[in-house]
């Protein structure tokens, strides 16, 4: 999917597209949710944070595929 270059001479463009921002936001929310669920399941916080961090990369790949 090709997008037009929105940056002109002397203009600052956005750092992320809206699609990328939504993908990263959803992945972050999934990671936070997994961390909270792991903590509520009785895992110690370092393990719960590791679980949440491990879920973020697959979530980015998943949301990148389904959001078009």
UniProtKB/TrEMBL annotation:
Residues spanning the membrane: 21-41, 47-67
Domain of life of the source: Bacteria
Keyword annotations of the record: Membrane, Transmembrane, Transmembrane helix
Protein name: AI-2E family transporter
Originating species: Streptomyces olindensis
């Amino acid at each position: 999917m090709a997008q037009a270059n929105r940056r002109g001479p002397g203009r600052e463009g956005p750092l992320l597209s809206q699609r990328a921002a939504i993908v990263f936001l959803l992945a972050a929310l999934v990671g936070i949710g997994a961390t909270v669920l792991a903590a509520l399941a009785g895992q110690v916080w370092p393990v719960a944070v590791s679980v949440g961090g491990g879920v973020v990369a697959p979530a980015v790949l998943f949301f990148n595929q389904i959001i078009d």
